[in-house]
Design brief:
By secondary structure, the protein is an all-alpha fold. It has one domain. Helix content is 49%, strand content 0%. The N and C termini lie far apart (78 Å).
Length: 70
């Protein structure tokens, strides 16, 4: 009787690894029909890519200025 019960760990679960990568768009986004939307997506990706680290650099710099100046 124990053989009749299937172990839930034996089931294969599909995982789409593209959704886990930060530089890939989500699989449900489709830009083939709208070139403007695709261009805006690329521009926003580059803005986030450059302004994200600049934000943290400025934040750390201002922290040191606030801590070490009198």
């Amino acid at each position: 009787m124990a053989r009749d019960l299937r172990d839930p760990a034996d089931r294969y679960e599909f995982v789409d690894y593209r959704s886990l990568a930060p530089d890939w768009p989500s699989p449900d986004l489709d830009f083939r029909d709208d070139r403007l939307l695709a261009t805006l997506y690329e521009i926003s990706e580059w803005v986030i890519f450059f302004l994200g680290p600049i934000f943290w650099i400025c934040l750390i710099y201002l922290f040191f200025v606030a801590e070490f100046t009198s």
